[in-house]
Amino acid sequence: MDAAIVVGLQKAKAAFPGADLIVFGSQARGSLRPGSDLDVCALFPTLTKDAFELAYDVSTEIHRHLDLALDVVVCDRQQFNARSQETWTLEYQIRAEGVIV
């Protein structure tokens, strides 16, 4: 993964104490193509507000540090841990290929 992306995500993560940012998709697999976006799962201990609002907040913070197209998914740890056991879920894919930043 590009070092500038790692640094930008680490800076963004500082705004969300206790959360993990997990990169998944083509960036994590190393199979980028021109125009690829950055897929990020923001994993919170608990959701303190609506997941869509948190996704907006996380996206906004990442955009302060990186000028990339983003897809942000927000989960709480309990939901993520349960759903990541099911092979048909996005959470399973994130756990399988994700890179924690």
From TrEMBL:
SUPFAM superfamilies: Nucleotidyltransferase. One of its GO terms (molecular function) is nucleotidyltransferase activity. Pfam families: NTP_transf_2. Residues 11-80 form the Polymerase nucleotidyl transferase domain. InterPro entries: NT_sf, Polymerase_NTP_transf_dom. Signal peptide: none annotated. Gene3D superfamilies: Beta Polymerase, domain 2. This is Unannotated protein. It comes from freshwater metagenome.
